[in-house]
Hints:
six-stranded antiparallel β-sheet; 2 helices; 36% strand; alpha+beta; Thiol Ester Dehydrase, Chain A
Amino acid sequence: MPRIKLAIKKEYPFACDIQVRVGDLNYGAHVGNSEMVGILHDARVALLRAMGLNESDLGDGKTGIVMDDMVVNFRAEAFLGDTLAIGCGFAEVGEAGFRILYHVTRDGKTVAVAETGLVAFNYAARAIAFLPGVFKEKAGRYLVSSE
């Protein structure tokens, strides 16, 4: 089976640090794959918070997001107490969805490269929705260059 290979971008417009906790470790004493998903979730929440938004309100008071897909390429281990620097930003912002690209490093070394596809969702109507204009405007400030 061919491997999905994500490219590291030159720059990521948003960055946050997340410290590895004991609950992030698996039986190999390093960050587990499901725990990395949670770490990326924390980074996504931090990115949206920096924009004055959150996962249940993309700026119009009624539109949130749901996960469509995710790819994580692991490149190195991370251990208890490590500080992970996570660079991230938006790509492919469309009418109803967008992608977030992530680069996770420890002391300058790549730990993981990831990408998530997210879809706008109206939880009251239980239906896919259009991305609010305010979200698109704010996301434009955090676009990852296609280079």
